[in-house]
């Protein structure tokens, strides 16, 4: 039995001299005014570079965010800190530094439900957990770190925590799923439902009890990449797991979501500008579609958003506009929309990616930007992203400073899915 400890590592990096840049406004169509939403809010107060951003929404729709922040100079990181911040049930904002020390590579993970929040991070090759049982007011270390490479988290409706862990042996990753025997017990029932895989790509999806159109879907789905596709572990009770396999391509990143009564897997193909989309009720074969993306933009694997009122399916991605010297970019969020009956029509998605892009005005333009983190609860979508700055006067300062001293900030906003679905009069 595993005791309290598993988690996903996330590295964050900070800069010695935060370098400001003047954000440029991308050229947009006249309809761009309709893309304005809640003003993005900067997360955290520390300066530096952020790595491993993760977000969870609790029962009230409040967002809780974990990330690693560190100092970085000449590609060397130091002075890391694991940060968690969010909103308590009383509506008060909190920010806590759960750990600080020298950095190690990896992401973070976070889950929240019924006042309980769990944060995981991979530090020095081990997964460690921290827990709050009062909506973020106080925190405790869950002790006994476990050697692991990647971890993800979930909390079931009965309060039991689920820890999903990848352990590396040679060139293979072994999946272990540990479910608490009872809520907060600290004892775990283990399962190993999938075969070993050379892929460390991992994602977890949990049924949203607020969405009545998801009642026929599984309680929890765990997805791991494999050579030539995806393997899934599916459960209705958190302890018994059914394996499934999707034949597509070797993934670089993947996301799970639901469109009506269908599970949807979106993943990037490793080494290629291609998205793969697979959907199923999980009681039938998976329908798989290959989506080619243009070379001028990067389309990332994010969860799909579904508005049942308009039957629109939406994908939020990061657009990168290469208009700066020496391969530098400015970046903003963009939105693609298709009808549900076009879900597996490659041409419908590819028309959305034709230039010129119309950026969403809620996103702060940055010199460079990591992909958006999208989480949903009911009809609410919470979007967070990390933007990075390089000095705007790149050609007039020391190249070492321009290339190796950066700073970044995490931004977040919350939008209504129906508002996204009806943009531009659709």
From TrEMBL:
UniProt KW keywords: Plasmid, Signal
SUPFAM superfamilies: Sialidases
Highest rank taxon of the organism: Bacteria
Leader peptide range in chain numbering: 1-19
InterPro entries named among the record's database cross-references: Sialidase_sf (IPR036278)
Protein's UniProt name: Uncharacterized protein
Originating organism: Herpetosiphon aurantiacus (strain ATCC 23779 / DSM 785 / 114-95)
